[in-house]
Amino acid sequence: MRRLGRPSSRRGFLALTAGVGAAMTVGAAGWARLAGASTGRVLASEGPLPEPFGVPLPVPPVARPVRGEGGADVYEVEQREGRVEILPGRKTTVWGYDGIFPGPTFVARSGRRTVLRVRNGLAVPTVTHLHGGVTPPESDGYPTDLLLPARCSPGGPSQAHDGMGDDGMGDDGMGDEHDGRVSIGYRTYEYPLPQRAATLWYHDHRMDFSAPQVWRGLAGFFLIGDEEEARLPLPGGDRDVPLMLCDRSFEEDGSFRHPAPAPTSAPAPGHGHDAFPDGVLGDVQLVNGAPWPVLEVSATRYRFRFLNASNARRYRLRLEAEGGRPGGRFVQIGSDGGLLGAPQSLAAIDMAPGERCDAVVDFAGFPVGSRITLRNTAAEGGMRDVMRFHVVRRGRRGERDDSRVPARLAASFERLSPSAAMPVRVFDFRRTHTGGGGEGRQMWTINGRPFRTGAVLASPCLGSVERWRFSSDFHHPVHVHLAQFQVVARGGRPPAAADAGWKDTVDVRPYEVVEVLARFAGYRGRYMLHCHNLEHEDMAMMGNFQVV
Ligand code: C2O
Ligand code: CU
Ligand code: CU
After folding, report:
1. Is 404 part of any domain?
2. Which of 173-187, 418-432, 437-451 has the highest mean pLDDT?
3. What are the φ and ψ backbone dihedral angles of 383, each rounded to 5 degrees?
4. What is the mean pLDDT of residues 310-337?
5. How would residue 15 be classed by pLDDT, with cut points 50, 70 and 90?
6. 139, 108, 115, 125: which is closest to 481 by C-alpha?
7. Does the Cβ of 356 fall within 6 Å of ligand 1?
């Protein structure tokens, strides 16, 4: 057993201090560190932490539809508490879809409707959002479209009602949250999926409480396949592995530790994380819900669908062989919005919260017995370890690996180019102090304003492409609902490797301007863009746009 956290906690704190007050005085070396570090502060766990590489990698089960009707797959899923063993010998209560964390993986087809009927068996309101989905507005998981607990229903026990107070509907100036489409007990989300094959994920999006509710487990994978992807000779079956990366902290008894107030208190909405305004970093690295796990692999190619599901942590992933030697490269084949036009070979993968990266790793060059460690070189101390691959056999049952990564991936990939006719809009993500008398509170804002449900920042036309410029004072992973976009410039330079392909989330680094071309296809209605650092999101760094 070992302890982690204190040194990195201090380091994290220094980094964020540099980002805020002293930004203008950081030297070049400071900038480099700032650009690589995570925004946030480590919340240290109580009690001993496990040794790394002691447990096998779990893979979330694939959900089964309860029926297929009229060209749709219908699923029923319940949000409920589950007791799971994350730390050896201790039990953690998760808030999970079907009581598990990560939730079940939904495997869907492009253009075939998926219907998710969600029952809320928890004691708190929830909202389910399909991240990366081209979804009609009423199913998109708008933060005030609450699904109230089933046991809140009229005539049911009132305890949950008392517990909820009027949270999310306060008079604190955070917005008129009464206008949500509220359901009790059950809610049906419809996903028509008019979009390419891609690695999506679903997660809680409740107004002011996304950070603690995702932290407790309300997240899972949603994979869309299509014919174009199915024709490619990529590794498949159990060599196509989704990897949800997130960091968590634990109490002595094994329960999740997060600074948000207990859900039964009546908090000032969204701002229970006041001690952690920059974001909460855990000191235990989880992959698919297991701490520093190991995956036994054959010496063949694997497709890994990396998802950064952390609240605030950023990753620079590298493969390292024994003795610190390089452990090979990643061949990136897809990004948030699906397959790239052509693969790109990368020594490192940079991922901000919310981003996905689909990459093939070939273990063929490693003798049986090799151990290859996935490292996060953007982290400190024990958090530099993520998971390990253990090469235990040549090929599966001796057969050849006939997978490959073709030089041309997606013929459907269309590169957008800027034109003078495209509307230009600017979104500035910045810390703002509100209130007076020297005791104003800090908010994370877009264009100087905290989120209000009634305020619309942009009204793009359905089917149009617009040039959106994101600027920031800090690290903000900017996520746009509905629209997919392509990055055309970062800090006045060409996009970074991590910006490749169709994206829905892009890391905007301190004092940087990122320009994207966003296509508003699919549906008219109200959608949002926001920072995907979940603590920033809960502290009002969200805005609406209306597709007209
Ligand atoms: Cu992954 Cu609006 O969120
Ligand atoms: Cu989203
Ligand atoms: Cu942010």
Report:
1. no
2. 418-432
3. -75, -5
4. 96
5. very low
6. 139
7. no
> In this structure, is the dihedral angle defined by the CA atoms of residues 21, 25, 30 and 31, taken in order, positive or negative?
positive
Q: Is the CB of 530 under 6 A from ligand 1?
A: yes
pLDDT at 544: 97
Q: What is the per-residue pLDDT across 120-152, written as a single tens digit (0 to 9) for each?
A: 999 999 999 999 999 999 999 999 999 999 986
**322, two tokens:** 């024994």
Counting Cα atoms < 13 Å in the Cβ hemisphere of 130 gives: 32
Mean pLDDT value across residues 156-185: 49
Task: Identify the residue whose tokens are 């899972």.
Answer: 220
Q: What is the per-residue pLDDT across 218-249, written as a single tens digit (0 to 9) for each?
A: 999 999 999 999 999 999 999 999 999 999 99
* Ligand 1 atom, smallest distance to 203 CA: 1
Is 7's pLDDT higher than 80? Answer: no
Q: Which ligand number lies closest to the CA of residue 307?
A: 1
Domain count of the chain? 3
Question: For residue 58, is pLDDT > 60?
Answer: yes
CA distance 56 to 291: 9
State the residue range of the domain holding 171: 67-230
Say if ligand 1 is within 6 A of residue 481 CB.
Answer: yes
Of the chain, the percentage scoring pLDDT greater than 70 comes to 83
Q: Identify the DSSP state of 465.
A: E
Q: In terms of domains, do 76 and 220 share one? A: yes
- From the list 468, 400, 481, the residue with the least C-alpha distance to 205 is 481
20: confidence class by pLDDT, cuts 50, 70, 90:
very low
- With 0-12 CB in 10 A as exposed, 13-18 as middle and 19+ as buried, what is 408? exposed
The verdict on residue 55 lying in a domain is: no
Which of 230, 251, 278 finishes a domain? 230
Q: Are both 341 and 420 inside the same structural domain? A: no
Percent of the chain with pLDDT over 90: 76
C-beta 536 within 6 A of ligand 1: no
- Residue 27 burial by CB count (10 A; 0-12/13-18/19+): exposed, middle or buried? exposed
Residue 29 DSSP code: H
Q: Residue 350, class by beta-carbon neighbours within 10 Å (0-12 exposed, 13-18 middle, 19+ buried)?
A: buried
Task: Give CA–CA dist 125/45, Å, rounded.
Answer: 27
**Cis, peptide link before residue 102, omega less than 30° from 0:** yes
Q: Is residue 505 part of a domain?
A: yes
Q: Report the amino acid identity of residue 196.
A: R
| pTM, entire model | 0.89
Contact of 484 with 518, CB cutoff 8 Å: yes
Helix (H, G, I), strand (E, B) or coil at 6: helix
Indicate which atom in ligand 1 lies nearest the CA of residue 354: 1
Q: What is the pLDDT of residue 277?
A: 84
CA-nearest of 379, 391, 374 to 292 is 374
